[in-house]
Amino acid sequence: MQIKPRQHLLEVWQAISRHSFTDGEWEWGRTGGLSSVADAERLLCLMYPATEIPAFRLDEPDTTERDVQTALKNAGGRLEIPAKIVGILADFMRTHTTDDKRPSFSGGHYFSPRDPEHVLTEEQRALGVVDSFSMSITLSLATLGFLKVYETKTRRGEIRALIDELRAATETRLTAAMVSMLRSFSVNVFDPEEPQGRTLCKLLGQGQASDRVVLQQFQRRFRSLRSIIGDSLVLGVDVADRLRDENQLFECGWSWSLVKDAPLVETTADIGPQPDGIARSVPYLYFTVVALDGIQDLFSDRTLTLGLLNAEQQRLADALRLRWEITQQYWSGIARFGDGAWPLEDIPWRTTGQRQESEYFSLSVAAILVQDLVRRRATDDDLTRTVAVMERLAERARVTSRMTLRDGAVQLHSPGIKLPLQGSDAAGPPMMWTMGDFSAQLLKRTIQLCALSRNPSSHDRLLRLAEDIFDHVWRRRIREGEGTGLWDNPGALYPDTTMGDARLTWSTTERVTECMVAARGLYIQPPIRSAELASLASALLSEATHLLGSEQLEPTSHQEGSRGTTLTGVEVKLRRAREIIDRQPGTAAALTLEILGELDTLALARQTASRGV
Amino acid sequence: MLVFAASDKGGTGRSVTSANVAFRRALAGDDVAYVDFDFGSPTAAAVFDVPEAMGGVESGGLHTYLRGKAAEPVRVDVWAETEHEVLRDRPTGAGNLVLLPGDRSGGEFAVGKDVLRRCTDLFLRLNSEFDIVVVDLSAGRSFAMDMALEVTSLPELRGVGSRWLVYHRWTRQHVIAASGLVFGSRGILAGGVARGHDEEDLANRIRFVRAAVPDPEAAPWAMVPPAQSAWMRKCDQDLNELAAQRNVGYTRMLGSIPLEPVLQWREQLITDEDVLSSRVANMETLQALKDLAQALDDDEAWGPA
Lengths: 613, 305
Prior knowledge:
- The structure holds 2 protein chains of 2 kinds.
- By secondary structure, chain A is mainly alpha-helical.
- Helices cover 57% and strands 5% of the residues of chain A.
- Chain A folds into 2 domains: 5-192 and 232-341 and 348-524, Alpha/alpha barrel (Glycosyltransferase); 532-612, no CATH class.
- In chain A, strands 3-9-8 form a 3-stranded antiparallel beta sheet.
- The longest helix of chain B has 20 residues, at 226-245.
- Chain B has an 8-stranded mixed beta sheet with strand order 3-4-2-5-1-6-7-8, with helices on both faces.
- Chain B has a single domain, classed as Rossmann fold, CATH 3.40.50.300.
- Chain B has 14 helices and 8 strands.
- At the A-B interface, loops of A face helix 10 of B.
């Protein structure tokens, strides 16, 4: 199924406005307010496209496009929509603020007990989670940018007051999210003999190299990274000492929440008391990817040009950027470790910290690798290998192939992969986190990779893969009842399996809108230029130019006559072909072929005539 | 309520649209007066199909009154005098519809103290007698417009609601001109402020009306060859952007009347019969006129954006 970012996104928006607006009023519904993650995801479904795609902007009512406005007609008229969005965002900020005026990043109903018999405590449900920190960064930046434009457009007194309140709350939330993000970062050092160490050595060695060789390679490969971490990050004394020992392995990334005993971050901003951490200091692949995605927005072009960060936030952003760089380099290095097969190519990936095995983790590592490739303008070889990994993941997850009886891949889609949250038992029964968005994540990374590739064959492979995955994702929309047209309804695809019922899932819905935004990025860049086509087009062009010249040696026709008109048309086309031959050699060739045909009609006619004499 | 209809250029459909709006309001039961201050070229009578007043009345019109040569300007009862066959039977429930024509050989004239006083009297009288008083001003900055700004700034008319409609066609030049007419250095706002109006208050009383707008998504424009259609849509987008930059965007727009042959060629009232039985006019046009007529006193449409 062809991906049409604009049309598909409009359909999603229409479904959201149908679901969320009753008589023009926003309805949070049953689950609203329970989880800051879900609410942020829901708002991002609107705000993310609105900030990333010029055609979908809502902050300038005078230029809102008609199809966009039609899709949102349930929400109200062109002038009402931005005012309503301000109200909804302010409502979100108010809801997710604790009694002591501190922004709350609660996971809420996204947390579940590991043992279904148990019930989580209130305290546990209110715990912050990296998903929420990351979403909050993205949502806050989107909100600040939105307000920056909209506040110059409205003159209504009550809205202006609301805008001021919202801006203050958003800035506090952004700062608090960045501080929390810093306090959730973790560096974990372990001995090669420990179970974690053995898992990592096995993963890196790929059964080819002995643990000792792997350790040596690890030392060499990550020596500079190790010293950067030791020199520039504030670590616990114990961790810092062990990290200096070259015989120890380490990993870095984000834990699921604030790390236990994480030091307070000194800040001049008023963000209320910083809560104590609870999470064990172990990086999780999933949360690392989530964090990297959010942090990236802090130094996007948009954030910089609009000047969305204040000095204090800029300082925090720099600290986060350092961790972002380190983490990305580390995992990209791990994914491509060694000289032979990549550890990433050995699917499924086995995590060291939680010692779990799943395609989902392979996808997470691939996601970091893709981001790293995007940043480094990767080589064709790296790219081609990653393409193959993506294709295999789609195949193994039964996205591009048929589900078999009692297929293990069902787990990936419904209920999803469950992550134990280490350290959560300090506040009640042990908790876990469920990730059910595999297909949407896979689609997002495939599209990102596709946008990166400038090699026609891998670009084409990725595009076809993306379309296949999209086909699967699109069919998983809910067909009836609450949230019609949104996600997720895995049962629609695998009717014979015991998959869960259709249930509105904002995380999947949000990922799909992100995919559509990424897909637009795919089409706004110029098409890949093929060298063969370019040389063919220029040869055609030279022949056509020559033939036109010789045609013009014939007696001049009257300008308005049919021959005159044809020749003028030919000249215009020729000029156009020459103009675009560098960018679109294929189009240039097509135009030139038309010219050649027309010129030949004239030439052939003359030849026939001369034969008759 | 006084409604001033202005435009920077001629041929914007100001008179014909205003007359249609007046007609719609009368049909809806309001008493409506249509005051033809288009001193250069009085056309309203033609739109209402009132032959005696075609091109202005011989004498006793608005010019005569303002110069002090008559105690009252001539009034024409449109329902009674029109030759339009549909209009002649006044629909039940319809309000009065009265035309105050200009003089045939009137032309523009200077505004003196006496003229102002008479004009003030006229507006006050009409306002107490009618629900809606549409004042059709000449194109561009004219004496009529200065007079309207001057009179509405006087303490006597402070309590009288007045609103301004600025008509423009949907083209680059017209958008720029309409913006200039309102926001330019010699525009309505500047002129109003110089006469003692509060700038923000006056700005909130001004709205734009787009006339003769081709809709690229509707027939017949949606049926043109694809290249032309793509071109039109792009132009439309560009115009919207230009309008937004010039403060003429949707936020300040009260209505948009589609390009309509009946308005374009015949400059006449569009009756329900034209749309429903003879079908020479489009439903969309009728709806747009109804919406515009309704928006005249819809406070939400006039609130700060």
